[in-house]
């Protein structure tokens, strides 16, 4: 009997562990920790460096994923339109360069130069930031809203609802959310999903 | 002259015929059609692997799914491409032909990703590769957003085969 009880306890625990794996990472309303990651110019970037920011558009992205490439121009436009309004873009490459050589720090510099990125493009070499955020794919957006000097997750997901064709977009999730935040409203759509490349985690 | 023209026409015809028989069919379908395939009662364990021609880790694990389809009589594998419909002929069909894929290849022709990803599984964030395993006899239906090696996949499928 004891054995059965013990067994069921393990089974129940197992369920919880499984569930928590899925739920890992920040959720809407969570406060996020700052990071310090190396930008393509060699300097470390932290969110606390931006004294005037009202929030951030954090985008996990990379050089190699076709979906990331499809969004490069739109990410540039987001930064150009919203940095001056208090919401700059910080692009974070979470991929392990051993598994994806095209995503090395050197290649990041090349890509940023070729595409004239106006925003910081930083490397998450330890993958700790991607893990903490719960990023799973590239591109993966986390919109942060500053509230009493703390940064709160306001939106998680895609930039808009048509990856292939910017002309065919009918929902601009990130822009809409920023608009709502700036108007003092609550964000109406806080999560969206999109196809993307799985993050190339280091092999254990 | 006439003879040569006829021979030429016959040659073209044969070439066309041989191409037709060799190439695997790729079926483009809508979300409701895919869902119907998932839910349709079957004595086989259905494995839906979500992949794309541009996805390296997906391509790496495709042979394991091909093997699964070939070696298990009671498993049916569906390779569901996440490529854009515009790439069906040039990219997907060519790829299927080149790799001589034997499993059934489908292409999900939907653009509202937020909608179809949630409809397929609330556990799916949208990253690929990802795999859904369905056993309609036991009611098992599980989603895995991860890559598999051969051993992992073989171990996993045992849970679904009676």
TrEMBL record, chain A:
Its keywords, alphabetically, are: Signal
Q: Please state the span of the N-terminal signal peptide per the UniProt entry.
A: 1-19
- Tell me the ranges covered by the Thioredoxin domain, including all copies: 26-179
A Pfam family: AhpC-TSA
- Cell wall biogenesis/degradation found in the keyword field: no
Cross-referenced Gene3D superfamilies, in alphabetical order?
Glutaredoxin
List the protein's name.
Thioredoxin family protein
- What species is this protein from? Splendidivirga corallicola
From TrEMBL, chain B:
Keywords recorded for this protein, A-Z: Cytochrome c-type biogenesis, Disulfide bond, Redox-active center
Under the heading Gene3D superfamilies, the entry gives: Glutaredoxin
Source organism (scientific name): Splendidivirga corallicola
**Where does this protein chiefly localize?**
other
Cross-referenced PROSITE patterns: THIOREDOXIN_2
Question: Which InterPro entries has this protein been placed in?
Answer: AhpC/TSA, Thioredoxin-like_sf, Thioredoxin_domain, Thioredoxin_ResA/DsbE_sf
Where, per UniProt, does this protein localize? Cell envelope
What's the protein called, per UniProt? TlpA disulfide reductase family protein
Which stretches make up the Thioredoxin domain?
7-162
Please name the Pfam families in this protein's record. AhpC-TSA
